[in-house]
Write a structure and sequence with these properties.
By secondary structure, the chain is α/β, with parallel strands linked by helices. It folds into two domains: about 80 residues, 3-Layer(aba) Sandwich (Rossmann fold), CATH 3.40.50.10860; about 130 residues, 3-Layer(aba) Sandwich (Rossmann fold). The protein is built from ten helices and twelve strands. The strands form three sheets. A seven-stranded mixed sheet has the order 1-2-12-9-8-6-7. The longest helix has 21 residues. The structure holds 5,10-Methenyltetrahydrofolate.
Amino acid sequence: MKGAGVYCSGMTTVIDGNAVAEDVRADVAATVDALDAEGVTPGLATVLMSDDDASSTYVSMKQRDCEEVGIESFHVEIDPDEPASELYETIDDLNAREDVHGILVQLPLPDHVDEREVLRRVDPAKDVDGFHPENVGRLVAGDPRFVPCTPNGVMRLLDDADVPLDGLDATVVGRSNIVGKPLSNLLLQENATVTTCHSRTTDLEAHTRSADLVVAAAGIPEFIDASMLAEGAVVIDVGTNRVEDSSEKGYHLTGDVDFESAKEKASVISPSPGGVGPMTRAMLLVNTVEAAAALTDSDVPLP
Ligand SMILES: Nc1nc(=O)c2c([nH]1)NC[C@@H]1CN(c3ccc(C(=O)N[C@@H](CCC(=O)O)C(=O)O)cc3)C=[N+]21
């Protein structure tokens, strides 16, 4: 049975990420209630060290999501001109706090901050992004603790749309630590045959055209079009690119996939916006209640 987040237009199923995310949030809210009955209020700390518009928009959306499901959110803002030690000390404080179960340091960070040191510094038991090397290692070893939110959201969308992964030929375009690498590992864990492509791949089209599943996570607007896809492919668009225009906002959002052409060829397609983005935020809530339950030795049912 297909889940709530799919509707069919002609032969193509268009995934509705907002609808699936809504379902996930309802499950999270039930876990929050169960934790509440044990006297635990899950808490998420977001740390922003950036002047970037998109970054602050994402962080405020995450705070709003927390409020909706009953997770307490704490926000720390650090001027991007401050020394890196400010951020390190903030992380140390949050690691020590009992009311903070999850910590998210919004990326990207200023150039003078050592990102790897930041990711190592977050207590792996509170690392709801799943970026700490210990959690990365566990994921690769097939024993995940916190699965990074975007790849976890992609897996949930594929499950909701009833896409069978066993034996599937999957091509992931993009090899970032945040999306491409963890997603390739998760697909492999589900017995897909995975090809991970990137900017230096020779003949990218050959890899996308032969794939049953194409995941676009390269960060290049409308980079994948119908000519690069097999008839009937499943297409997941992870890109969220701001493209400047003459509208009042000054930009619009577009994915890494040319949706209009790709939807004519795909059997299932996840658009952007409205696909993976809302799921990324929903999975952060899932990881936060999981962290709260683990840190308080609670065995409430998890979403
Ligand atoms: N430590 C860290 N963890 C992250 O998970 C993280 C990060 N840093 N830095 C930036 C990226 C990007 N990201 C998105 C989250 C939600 C949407 C999202 O909700 N997009 C909506 C539209 C949002 C809008 O209207 O602007 C959609 O696609 O429909 C997009 C992108 C999380 N990231």
